[in-house]
Amino acid sequence: MSRSTSVPTRPRRRHGWGIRATGLAAGFAAAAATSACLNFDPFGCQDDSQCDAQAMGLCQPAGYCSYPDLACLETGQRYEENAGDGLGGQCVGPMMSTTTTGPTSDGTDPDAGTLEDTGTTGPDPDSSSDDGPTTGDDCGGGGQACCPGDACDPGLACSEGLCGCVRAIAVGDRHSCAIKLDDSLWCWGDNGLGQLAAEGVDSSAVPVQIPGFGPAAPVDTVHARTHTCVLLGDDTVQCWGDNAGMKVNPTAVPAVVLIPEQVSLGALIGAVGVGGTHSCTTLATGTGACWGANGAGQLTGAEAPGPVGIGGVAPTAIALGETHSCMSDVTGAVFCWGDNAFGQLGIDPVMFPTSNVVQTVPVSPITQMVAGQHHMCARTGSDVVCWGRNTMGQLGIASQVDTFTPTSVTLPPGSGVVSELVAAADQTCAVTATGGVLCWGGNQHGELLLEPDMNGEDGFALEPRAITLGFSVAQLATGVTHTCALTTTGQVLCWGENGQGQIGDGTMTDALEPTPVQLACP
Residue 155's closest CA among 9, 53, 6, 55? Predict the structure, then answer.
């Protein structure tokens, strides 16, 4: 059996909304506890198929099932409470077992759950393959310690001593997605508008594979709101889901698009952004293009649904709000148009409540920008600046007053350098170079891990607050109701509202602490 010490190094891009201790494994622990309640005698196992597949159970060499728990630092696994030989509830030592099946040549995992077959089944960690790790291995499998030389099984990569399979994440309004290292796409949560590309199912509380993507059609980046778009390795874009205003595809008629459709723009695509009412891309021709609704001029002055060429800008990045659009160029200049009711275009909203003409935002050269529903934030030099709507403190400037002037955000002392910003709805978060997280703005659904009390306190934060997660973050993604993190060890955890299963832990119970997603590797 071969071990892999490297993963594909094709450059990865992230643009647009959504792209990038005890209690950390609440979802898995609950499943393990349920299993234990069903059998009060020590429950032995001989292989993984005898453990709870929905909870990603593994049969350990000691002969008892274990389940993921990030509090177990060596292996990320804890024996079920009813394990014998004094192992019940204990962390698993370095010896572990796992059997998995990889995807087929077209990128579809034949053993992965699909919404069509059960509506709730996720990837099946209990199938086997000659190409994957085999039972009895003590390193190199998903969630296991890396083998000597940082080697992992095919489809996995070593990060900070553990083997993982997730490259990037995105969060929409009420669904979430992850790109695996094999370039396949997995999503979970709300499917009421076709966000999961499946028919006849309202939602899925566990990840399901989106058909058609994988090694033969690699997903480069994913972007989500109530619709989902992916940028593929061949620099084309496909979208599906909510097609109100024809934001999925300007030539698509259905209100809901269930099968991913390629958007024909006549040129290769460099970046993608999705907004509440429209979508945009940058093009290899040095221009931009947008399509969808245009009620506030978010497509400029052209006729909807487009696609509309964006003139006067040579964009390299995109950030879209509910009904406004922003692009930046290689110099770090920012250009915005569309709805300006709260000053999100960087101009006076009294004089210009909307603008179908591209406006230059008076801000120092930026290195990154993000859009919430009606606000903007950007990294400029070592500073973070924000402007636009501020009713929930989403600008992080210790007030609830809107401003159209980009205003510096004061970070807590010792926060370090901000390496990434994310925003959605009425909240903003920053990831630091050391993997720490700061957030400010709305917390109505617990997306900032601030639990509102009966008087509504902690419903928002007017200034950045350090969020204690218990792990280092490689990428953060936030949406209207919840937030997800990809850890530096390759784990995906989510928290916030879970009414449509957007946390991905197999339940629909809200999570007020980081909760592991039931996403099996590879």
Answer: 6
